[in-house]
Amino acid sequence: MEFDFVTFYRDLLMRVTDAPxxxxxxxxxxxxxxxxxxxxxxxxxxxxxxxxQSLDPLKAGGRLLNLWFILIGRSRITRKSTxxxxxxxxxxxxxxxxxxxxxxxxxxxxxxxSEKVRNNETRCAWIHDxxxxxxxxxxxxxxxxxSDAILSKIYDGSSYIRSTIGRGREAIVNPYLTxxxxxxxxxxxxxxxxxxxxxxxxxxxYVIGKRKRRLPLRSSLTPEEEELAREIYKWLLAVYNxxxxxxxxFDAEAKKIYDEFEEKVERDIEEKDLGIxxxxxxxxxxxxxxxxxxxxxxxxxxxxxAGWSRxxxxxxxxxxxxxxxxxxxxxxxxx
Length: 335
What we know:
Layout: H1 5-16, H2 21-36, E1 40-43, H3 50-55, E2 62-63, E3 68-72, H4 80-95, H5 106-114, E4 122-128, H6 132-140, H7 145-155, E5 160-164, E6 168-172, E7 175-183, H8 193-198, E8 204-208, H9 223-240, E9 246-250, H10 252-271, H11 278-282, H12 284-298, H13 302-307, E10 312-315, H14 317-334
Parallel strand pairs: 1-9, 3-7, 3-8, 4-7, 9-10
Antiparallel strand pairs: 1-2, 5-6
């Protein structure tokens, strides 16, 4: 069987926990998204530095592969904390400096991220197994309102610079933030129309999970599972340790499929009254691009990723089809 990180990770965790498969797959995609940082980018002219590119064609790129997930399910029986805990465990093994505090004020967020700049990049992951308190504060406190604006700017990869009298100049340079947070089915009652229309809530992939089976408690891994766990960590480490940028793009057939998907989304926006759903629906092509690239990387071995030396990595038909199928599930979850 050829290596596929998402499949291998899902298979391992499905053996040791009865968490919903949807949560496990989302955490696998989150881990890849976190590990790649800015070292893998999708070639997208609207996102690329046009003037730098005119002087140096290798300055192409632009679309980052960062993903934000919110897992939503019932307490205890959907094992949200178990899934999030295993993702946090792996990231701590890669680099414990990646993790942000679980809770923060806007000022603390800027301060913490400004201290994580490394090699002209600020790579961070926000992991939290109960996020409802954050959204309650957004609704109730003017003090917290700036958090969603800051996070929205960081999502797009734009540097954030702020000067205050007390702390002077603080800069989040070339941010790359991924998110894996969770809550119960109560969470959507805290969302408001303004943040949907302004776009903050449209950046998340909401994963609805329901437990379909129950596993008895176990105390140890089998030798086969131990080997699989080592392979998973070895693969993530190879991705994380790359220090040269690889640009990704669709091959001809994948590009045709993507264009058809994007055209359908734009036609629906023009012809249908989607109301407050319009912004999220319009973000589906962005999810497809990011997920297509991540699924392509998932199929590569650790050795292939570590040794890749060509300037372009092609996303293929099976990757785009896999991404589109996942995104239609995302749309169903959002509804």
